[in-house]
Fold these 2 entries.
Entry 1:
Amino acid sequence: MIEVQAGCLVGIDAYPVHVEARIGKGLPVFEIVGLPERGVRESRVRVKSALAASGFEIPPRNLVLNLAPGDLRKTGSSYDLAIAMAIMAACDSVQLERVAGTLMIGELALTGELRPVRGVLPQLRSARERGLTRAIIPRGNAAEGALARGLEVYCASHVTEVIEWLSDRDELERVHEREHQHEEGNGDDLGDVRGQAAARRALEIAAAGNHHVLFVGPPGAGKTMLARRLRTILPTPSSMEATEIATIASAAGFDAPGSLKNVTRPFRAPHHTASAAAIIGGGDPVRPGEVTLAHGGVLFLDELPEFRRDVIETLRTTMEQGQVTIARARQRVDMPASPLVVAAMNPCPCGYAGDPERLCSCSPDRVARYRAKVSGPIVDRFDLHVVVRRVPPRALRQSERSEPSRAIRQRVQQTRERMPPPAATLEDHLANVDGHALQLLETAVDRLGISARGYVKCLNVAHTIAALSEEKVVSSAHIAEALQYRALDRSRADLR
Ligand SMILES: Nc1ncnc2c1ncn2[C@@H]1O[C@H](COP(=O)(O)OP(=O)(O)OP(=O)(O)O)[C@@H](O)[C@H]1O
Ligand SMILES: [Mg+2]
Ligand SMILES: [Zn+2]
């Protein structure tokens, strides 16, 4: 039995698929079996034409290709290369030793050109995990292949190159890491934000302690500007984080970074009209949603109350669990999803409630309905509620450039190294908190009607604040600052 190794992408993982070719007696047919979807069935046309273009005519025999395992639905066009090589091997036209142990993925054009596919990085990871030692991928995916560890990765741009290699007549090109000079993101910098000391401080705390932030303020106050710059103060990803970020990007079909060192944290800002499937993930086959695409980076939800109700509801669980699970009839798909979430909203429909200079034109009823869209439970998920005020034009002009992102990022990095592991139990949260601080917190919780979740979040944030100022014990000052970030718990009406 001839068997060629391929893989099937589901979510951000790849599963092994064995392409078996058999030439039997009987009528001349060319069949593909093993739950192939239409795109895979159409593979017959592409493979036949591509092989013909490189001088190989499929003999008019009884040819059956089986994609195993039979209970996994096969979609997409990435099986073309494996199918083509399985046929050639079944016809004794290539050397079998080279076929065994080699993952082959890629879509074939009618001309025999090998076209890039989505998910090469998860495919290579799965190949290594099942003991394969080599892989052949399309040259267009080389920048992704270069990130893989633990197996030899070759690339080709035409099926003829692969045939030549399998026949031991020519070499294939090995993929290499290509590091490019580190350009600092897209030029955004927190130094561009004038004034706004409180909001910038909140972003620093968020970055240091991985706390979700909700900005509330009038139009033009700089909420979007601030949120977009959170990414610039997050620490450089570790190589494990970089691998995870790159694997997700590969499954999504994004441009590959060429080297792990080039991987930057993602920033995703889905529009508020996006569907739950687009945000959480879904489809068939399952594809990652925005929460996964932002994993390891920042998910920005601008105009939070405008998001669909069902999206907000699902976000609640995701924000707490750090992963999503999508249930399908045949399988369960798990995907990592722990971005730092930053959201922005106006205090009311007109945007000026609580503004010292402009009058709010909304009826109390409208304000209440607007706020109700972001129900208590979602607001509760944010560790830091930050009221952002407008900086008047004159003050904007007169104030200096603020501290640049690079300096803040350094502090964030140092603080993260100092921080104890995330607290798991209430005892952990209460450890190293001084007595006065606890008393202050409990009084405030009673007086302001803060929920149990809010109480724990306050403690968490206070621990980060203490770590930022290199103190081991949480004091009243740290608790007092943390309490300032519960603006939306304090009062539903006025934000001061
Ligand atoms: N503190 C600031 N420093 C420098 N520029 C600012 C500042 N605040 C606002 N701006 C300028 O005002 C523009 C509008 O800010 P931004 O879009 O972030 O406001 P917003 O709070 O998101 O408003 P909206 O509620 O309408 O979405 C920014 O692009 C920037 O040019
Ligand atoms: Mg905005
Ligand atoms: Zn208003």
Entry 2:
Amino acid sequence: MQQFNYPTIIYYGEGAVEHLASALAKRGHRHLLLVTDATLVELGLAAQVVESLSGSGAEITLFDQVHSNPIEEDVELGTTAYKTNRCDAIVALGGGSPMDVAKVIKFMATHKGPLAQYEDRLGGDALITNPMPPVYAIPTTAGTGSEVGRSSVVTMAATKKKTIFFAPQLMPDIAVLAPELTASLPPHITAATGIDAFTHCLEAWLAPGFHPMADGIALEGIKLCLDCLPRCLANGNDLESRGKMLMAATMGATAFQKGLGMIHSLAHPLSAHFGLHHGLTNALLLPAAVAFLERSDLDEEQRGRLSTVHGFFQERGSGGDSLSSASRAWFESLGIEFGLARHGIPEDRFEFLADEAFDDPCHPTNMIPVTREDLLATYRAAL
Ligand SMILES: [Fe+2]
């Protein structure tokens, strides 16, 4: 028996935020907590969204103190703002961080502290049972796909560790994909976040297990990335391509219900310990990880999965005689500079990183099982 879930309502296209305002009015919300960060306030995007949402007739309290790597205090302050202002719904505006914090405020608004007891690893999801306010998610980057995700990562004060909270009820009620909100993203962030979306689709497609719905979504997402990410870099105001990249990001996170793989396991410690952007770390490791798969003893079906994606590159006239070389050439054309050493990752930390990567929960759904030594060798290949 397996269970497949695709419950999020998606509003897509220019002006989708106004459409959300109408939906909020129909739902009768009276006071919204808008969770965002200081950068989006500086860019004027928060004010733009407040203006659009004022059409709902609800009062709006702005909470803009989310850190780029969210911490427990962000959740505490946000939950206090929610309760003090007697809010009845949460709107998350931003990249993955405001969305992650919004999802945790959602359950802390109606559950007792401390937050630590709800950690997924400790079985905390079983304690998330009370009715909770809805979350409406408005992404401003096209990458994480957190707007359709069921989990959240927050660094706890006591342990200083990134801690996962997971429950199907945390999935936003409506995801709003409005391309005009991503037009001001600078090229290097556009590339890095877009490569994250591509990696989600690729790893989901390569993950073992029966999930043809995820497979179909992943393949279409890969094609959207190949076609639209270069266009977003060539012209940041190409709203059609910006919109399709938002959709590709949403599709990537929908597809990776099936699982991720070794690329994400290798990438996570580089962000945790060296502060590199998550999308960039995927880019630096993906070609070496795919080359590892290409060298491995794969069955016909597995090799066919690699060939299918390589075929998408070939159809688009991209160079490379394998998926690993084609993806490397494509990332270079998007501005990625390869070499872990060049990005400040010294070779003498690879043993430590391999331990961390092997501990990471993503690689058990890699196309083939990997050992710690395989992960170490892949770091070396990406040096
Ligand atoms: Fe990712």
